[in-house]
Design brief:
Length: 457
């Protein structure tokens, strides 16, 4: 296959953190490079390969390199390969196992002799790659704004770390953390993630020592944060463009198509908080009561609260009877992309994961921002404060508490047909949707991204 866009054909090795979200994000990037004629060698835990084989759209150019995950005696199951195989507190030991692959990775790189290696959490890759004459790219699946706010030399130089305020030189923005969010972030920075290395030190070593940083983002939305990162780390920041989901070839399950079809256009509230949602029982009940209180039809796709086996067992007393025919809570997986594109959907209450944000912007629904953890919080501030495409649910500054009234108010605010706020976010959303769905946007970003990779060699 010829290289599209000219220049040297690249050979890229991919070595993402052993978590499905990271593996699939790196494979999506691999597909974009292979579509332009470049070769990719994708290092993946041996038994996990079968789970993402179908996502490899260019098997003639993307080769999977199986990797046996070393044992961490007595700390994780011997057959564990990804974060899906172990509970969250044990992820640190899986990272230790990944660190122990360094000699094997060196042998693979010596054999393959690639031009570049993309990585994220394995902070030892840049030094190894440099010894072998390979360029290292830190490919980050969270937003430039998040890294710019939390993980920079300017932050490390603060005499007293204060994440409630932006770091020195941070671009003008509505992005900032509340007290409880800042405390949680400081705590997470200190957590050990494998081999006795804190998460923060692992990230800073990776960012300081790599040859370039890369994000799946676009300059039109986050250019100022990218410029800030380039100045902070004194190295190129490459953008692969927004990841617009492909139109699904499947159709919406008949159950949901029929249910949604019973309501008028743009009237249904869809709520989903992602696979990492960790609401407790009280928070879960306040959320669904808030959806009920808003008075609109709703479909909530929610995991059961921590410690519960089903959503049915924690629904408030009398709730199911009161909302029968106009509201439903689903505990299993649903076809989110197809649901969002259904004409009856008028509002999306989202946890602000990057994938869900893009899916929301690519559709016509109004957006209520309800972030839960980490980068979701910065995404929410960016969307509500800078881009003004949605409304964030109000929470207590000290503890992050929310009520059914705060859920209801946010939904009503964006769904008020005559309201100024609803009009403003609708107008801004329409502008960004038009931009994101422009012909050749992704392709042109990929071409520029590859040219900048070639310039590093």
């Amino acid at each position: 296959m010829a290289v599209k866009g000219g220049g040297k054909m690249l050979h890229i090795v991919m070595f993402p953190w052993f978590a499905m979200g990271h593996l699939t994000a790196f494979l999506h990037a691999s597909n974009k490079h292979a579509a332009k004629g470049h070769r990719v060698s994708f290092i993946i835990p041996t038994k996990t390969q079968s789970k993402i084989n179908s996502l490899n759209l260019h098997p003639s150019l993307i080769s999977f390199i199986p990797l046996d995950v070393p044992c961490v005696e007595g700390l994780i199951p011997s057959d564990a390969e990804t974060t899906a195989d172990v509970p969250f507190p044990l992820h640190t030991h899986l990272m230790t196992a990944m660190d122990r692959t360094e000699p094997t990775i060196e042998s693979i790189l010596l054999d393959l002799k690639p031009d570049l290696i993309f990585f994220d959490f394995t902070h030892w890759i840049p030094a190894l790659a440099r010894r072998l004459g390979i360029k290292s790219i830190h490919y980050c699946i969270i937003s430039p704004a998040t890294i710019a706010y939390t993980t920079t030399p300017a932050r490390d130089q603060e005499s007293e770390l204060n994440l409630e305020h932006p770091p020195l030189g941070f671009p003008p923005s509505a992005v900032k953390l509340r007290s409880y969010e800042a405390k949680a972030n400081v705590s997470f920075r200190k957590k050990v993630l494998g081999s006795g290395v804190s998460f923060h030190n692992r990230m800073m070593t990776a960012l300081n020592e790599c040859d370039a940083m890369a994000f799946k983002a676009c300059r039109e939305m986050e250019g100022a944060f990218c410029d800030y990162l380039e100045r902070q780390f004194n190295k190129p920041v490459l953008l692969s463009g927004p990841v617009i989901p492909e139109t699904p070839t499947s159709t919406l399950d008949e159950k949901w198509d029929k249910w949604l079809g019973g309501f008028k256009k743009g009237s249904v509230v869809y709520c989903a908080l992602g696979s990492q949602s960790n609401l407790n029982k009280h928070q879960f009940q306040e959320l669904v009561l808030g959806l009920e209180l808003a008075g609109l039809p709703f479909l909530a796709a929610l995991k059961p609260p921590t410690g519960n086996n089903s959503v049915e067992e924690v629904l408030p007393e009398g709730f199911a009877d009161r909302v029968m025919g106009r509201g439903t809570v689903e505990g299993g997986w649903v076809q989110q992309q197809l649901i969002l594109s259904h004409p009856s959907i008028g509002c999306f209450v989202t946890h602000c994961g990057s994938g869900s944000i893009t899916e929301a912007l690519a559709n016509d629904c109004q957006i209520v921002l309800f972030p839960q953890i980490g980068d979701q919080i910065v995404n929410a501030r960016l969307m509500s404060g800078d881009l003004k495409v949605g409304v964030e649910v109000e929470r207590g500054d000290e503890d992050g508490s929310f009520t059914k009234e705060s859920i209801c108010n946010a939904v009503r605010l964006v769904m008020d047909e005559k309201g100024e706020v609803a009009d403003e976010v609708r107008l801004n959303h329409a502008k960004w949707k038009e931009f994101l769905l422009k012909d050749n946007l992704e392709s042109s970003y990929t071409d520029e991204f590859i040219t900048k990779l070639q310039d590093l060699l």
